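[SOLVED] Need 3D model of a three-part complex

Original post:
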Amino acid sequence: MSGPATIVDVRGVDVELEGRRILTDVNFNVRAGEFAGLIGSNGAGKTTLLRMMLGLVQPARGEVVWPNNAREQRRVGYVPQKVALDVDVPLRVRDFVALGDDGHRYGLRRRTQQTWDRVQEVLDAVEASDLGERRIGALSGGELQRVLMAHALVSSPELLLLDEPLANLDPGATEDIVTLLARVREREHVAILLSAHDINALLGVMDRVIYIANAHVASGPTDEVVRHDVLSRLYGHHVDVVRVHGRVLVVTGATSEGPVPEHPDLVVE
Amino acid sequence: MHWLFEPGIWSNPAVRTGVGVGMVVAVVSALVGLFTVMRSQSFAGHALADVATAGGAGAGVFGFSPLAGFVVGSLAGASAMEAIGVERVRQRDVATGVVLGGATGLSALFLYLITLNTSNAGSTQSILFGSLFSVSNSSFLVITVVSVAVCLALAALGRPLLFASVSPDAARARGVAVRRVALGYTLLMAVTVGLSAVVIGSVLSTALLIGPPAAALRLGRRLGATLALAAALGVGAVGFGVVASYDSFYWWPSHRALPVSFCVVTLVVVEVVTANVVARVWARRGANARA
Amino acid sequence: MFSSFMTNAWIVGTVVSLLAGATGFFVVMRGSSFAAHAIPNGAFAGAAGAALVGVTPLAGLITFAVVSSVGIGASRRHRGDVATALALVMMLALGAAFLSLSGAYEPQVEALLFGQILGVATTSIVPVVVIASLCALALAVMYRPLLFNAAAPDLAAVKGLNPQLLEMGFMLTLALGAALTVPVVGALLTFSLTVGPPAAARLVTRRPGSALVASMALSAITLWVSIAASYQSNLPVGFFVGTSSALVYVLARILTRWRGRRA
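Solution:
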């Protein structure tokens, strides 16, 4: 199989939360340099699936395979949705980002200038260049998000996992983050897998989509998955995929398969 | 029953009064303490007991009624903790620790002054571990009345308190004045702790506030049953603890009795451990039944 | 106050307060103030038990402090604060029982609970310095993982840090430090050196290294002042330690608020 190497392979995984099965037979992979989106509504199991990939939760069935050991060798970066930070903790942004590199190592070795240069480099990459000296507890939500990204990137991971980075953002900010992530992918040569509940923000940059519905998953290149036949099979009943001005709407709950009214802007597949 | 109740235990009026007031305090501690455990405020509950101790010791120095001293001290401590900051968990932790340190320091001073100025030997012991058997009948009355008042107030706080304790965000969304409820509860806790510290010392005060409720929570399912169980466990620990302490005088030839505090605390710990074990066994049996 | 029989107090006091300040830096950061309060009570029980059995106090102090710290560390997640509270009162009650059984006098009880500056024997200096150095080394080795685990435990777990291992290591260090400090400052006041000065230190600086150093310095200064005041006034050293630690914190709060208003 030629092409970019596979970084992670999720095989036949069942996801359970508090005894209830919320996802069945999940299969997908992420390859080097790819931008993949895990799309599903709230409560669909995206966060749990990500945590399972990180080894924080064990799958009830199936396995998560890392062909070249990226997770064990700490080459996977993780940006959680929320971090409970103590406001008064004496930690500057650059200290926190540096911990992404050596925070897990026991022993006391002085940090080299090289490390600090790298810290500034990732801060620049996430457009947080001036935040270095700020106290980590005194950041706004958006600033903290970028710092968490820098923290995940400092050790040059192969894959960056982001849990709902676009939640609670207005459309303008959403666009900024997506553009930023695309830039980070280029600059840092890192694959990206993020979870979201709205596919539209990511349409322009996503190579591959992992679409969750009806406790099952369909994955593949975006164009091949977001189609009415694939999604109808996934949902278990008829769904329409409607494109309006380049935006996608998945319309479920249709009561009939009768003709849809014509409109020049409305393209129904 | 002779092996359990050594001769003369009930004929001693001080013992009867002591056991009686001990049980009253055990009940109110258990009821209030249930929420302390649910709200994960054990540190605050314990700190209030130590601050109450400072108040009680101070009362001893200046000649006030110990009961007033304990309760006032406890309320002052609660206010100080609220003043320093309770919104963020870490800050609350620090605030509690700092107030506790300051208050314990004051206790050191007051107890020293007491031993210096009076011939009261063992005042440290009595303040830390209570003077269960030297409670006067009038104090018994006051303590009982205040305890009933606390229980009524707790019932009044009732559902909002439960709601706010279990899910503060949801409660706020439903219009519960979470902050005010929290403040009210802290004051109730302060009074309860102050009362029990007078009678059984700050050590036991914490044990009865936390232990029986924790055990009951592991076993009970409905609130009413859990409250009843907590109260029963508290009363049992005090009752049997006093008996054991009295009996222990006869266990060794050296005739050195085990302190009441030790017997009661040990029983409380046994209750908690047993409850945990039983809960685990039930859970496993339940899982096996489902499988 | 600097006569020969006070030298022991100064030496040991300095060493334990520096250690308490360093340990306290992590205690406040991890939110372990309750455990830091409970463990010295374990040491108290150990000292009382040692007196009853006739063993050297340091052995009792260390054994019981370590046992209670392990118990508290092991139950951290599952209603940890309940376990800590019960461990605390159990140890205190146990200590009371030991003291009662061995017929200790009131002054001895007060010394154990509230500290005694003249109670430091010359023979204990070397063991104290050795154990304190070991603790300092342990803290240095765990420094970054502790920082990381306190700031973002989930991220630390992803990087492979075992939180239980870290918790145990820290609890043991805390226990050893407590065992050393209790004879000087007393079981009930030991913890205030691990809460007040460090909490103050982290308010006034945002760099972790500076906060650690400031924490140690403030703790040492607090104890020096307390020893001097206790010597002059004959009042128990615990009183000065408790109130000064609280005072240091309040001053730091006022300072930051004043600075915040100007900025």
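Edit: The radius of gyration of chain C is 18 Å.
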